[in-house]
Amino acid sequence: AQKVTQAQTEISVVEKEDVTLDCVYETRDTTYYLFWYKQPPSGELVFLIRRNSFDEQNEISGRYSWNFQKSTSSFNFTITASQVVDSAVYFCALSYTGGFKTIFGAGTRLFVKA
Amino acid sequence: DAGVIQSPRHEVTEMGQEVTLRCKPISGHNSLFWYRQTMMRGLELLIYFNNNVPIDDSGMPEDRFSAKMPNASFSTLKIQPSEPRDSAVYFCASSFLASGRAGELFFGEGSRLTVL
User: Fold this and answer.
1) Is the CB of B103 less than 8 angstroms away from the CB of A95?
2) Under a CB-based contact definition with an 8 Å cutoff, are residues A80 and B19 in contact?
3) Chain B contact for A109, CB < 8 A?
4) What value does the mean pLDDT take over residues B79-105?
C-alpha cells in the first residue's frame, strides 16, 4: 500500500526553537518522489522541497533542512530558529507511478509563539 | 506567469443543487489534479488527468461527482446533486511531468464549497 504518515498532529514551540516534523512513508515503487508543502493560514499550498528515491542527500535551504533515510522510510523536516511566520500546516507527500499520483499525509500544524 | 486559477473562490449552495468548480492550469503543464480538503479526511486525491485524459478517478467519492478536461487549459469538477457532506475546500493543481520536476504540484487557491 502507498501511505504517508505524519504522526505529529500539532506542535507548539517558542520562537527561535528548533523543531522537527516527522514523515514516514510506504510504497512498493522503487522510483518515487517525496515532498513537503506548507499551508499557511491563508490556505494556499506552497511547495517547499522535492526529493527522488535515488537521492538520499540531505538538503539545507536557509533555516530549513530535510533528512531523507530510505532505510527507515522517513523524510523529516527541521526548521532551525523557528519564527512566527513559520506557523502553518506542513504536509509531507509521496508521488509514485512515475509522478502521476501524489498522496498527502494528514499534516502537522505548527504553532510558533513569540 | 499566471498560476493555477480556480473559480469560484467561495460557493454557498443548498442541498440538491448542482455545483461546478472550474480550473485553469498553468500553461504548458500536462497534468491536472483535483483534491478535496476536509478536517476529517485531510487532502484527498479525487481524480487526475494527463494530456487531458482521465488517468485515475478512483478517488471520486461517488457518481454524483464528475470531472472533465475538454482541453489543455480548462477543467471542471461537477457535483450533482450536492449534499452537505460535500462541503470542503476543493483544490486544483497542475504539473509538468517528464521534466526534472516530476510530481511537483502547483496549486490553485482553492474553492471553498458550503452546502446547506
Assistant:
1) yes
2) no
3) no
4) 88
Q: What is the pLDDT of residues B31-65, one digit of tens each?
A: 999 999 999 999 999 999 999 999 999 999 889 99
Whether chain B has a CB inside 8 Å of the CB on A35: the answer is: yes
Q: Which residue has the cell 499520483?
A: A101
Percentages helix, strand, coil for chain B (3-state, rounded to 5) are 5, 55, 45
Q: How far away is chain B from the Cα of A95, in angstroms, using its nearest Cα?
A: 6
Contact B104 A50 (CB under 8 A): yes
Strands A33-39 and A101-104, sheet pairing: unpaired
Judge contact between A26 and A1, C-beta under 8 A: yes
Q: Where are the beta strands (DSSP E) in chain A?
A: 3-5, 10-14, 19-21, 24-26, 33-39, 46-52, 59-61, 64-69, 74-79, 88-96, 101-104, 108-113
pLDDT category, A5, cuts 50, 70, 90?
Answer: very high
B17 Cα to chain A: minimum distance (Å): 26
pLDDT at residue number A60: 85
